[in-house]
Amino acid sequence: xFTLKTGKKLAFLPLVLVSFSSQAQGDFSQEKYDSLxxxxxxxxxxxxxxxxxxxxxxxxxxxxxxxxxxxxxxxxLQASEFKRAYRxxxxxxxxxxxxxxKYFRNLLYTAEKANLSSDEYVEMLHKCQSYLPDDPTYxxxxxxxxxxxxxxxxxxxxxxxxKILQLDPDYGIALFNRGIYFFNKGIAIYNQNKKEESKxxxxxxxxxxxxxxxxxxxxxxxxxxxxxxxxxxxA
Length: 235
Hints:
This protein has helices at about 30-45, 50-60, 65-80, 80-95, 100-115, 120-130, 135-150, 155-165, 170-190, 195-215, 220-235. With about 240 residues, it is mainly alpha-helical. It has three domains: about 30-115, Serine Threonine Protein Phosphatase 5, Tetratricopeptide repeat, CATH 1.25.40; about 115-170; about 170-235. The chain is elongated.
């Protein structure tokens, strides 16, 4: 059987420490807030990233902002405190109004480092959908993560590829992987000496592969696959 094409991985974003002033809220002390920020910066410069994260967390008790949550996540990563980083990444996504995509890329990185269970990973991916725009790139990224998890996630994968193709009918990886799904399904039936019963799935796979070939004519693998299909069911 042929295997899925996995989408490209999104790069981990490097840490950039930024300076800003927070808006006062209630008994908020700007002086204390700024002092904590300077302590966090000094600790990070000296390589004490766990300590720096603690200062940022104290800042967050005074005023919650997605920027500080994001910095706390990055400092926790530098300290190899991956679960801690993961929690701060989530909070950054929840608080953000315009940078969810950036935080999402960082979330995937921290989730991988945090060694989440399969159930936790899937729960994370489902939760992400409520925060991210309808962009096929993010559904592709979710599919790429699901492909690496143990267990059978085929139903969820196919739902993602269907969603991607609804948003962009020419999305190559989704076309290819939908084809692979129907091809492997048909071959499983074919190998039970049920040639006629296998044809609907294999022909459905052929439709996806032909469409994929239109948008990716230089992919040599597709010729091999289509040749195999012709040998099974005819042109």
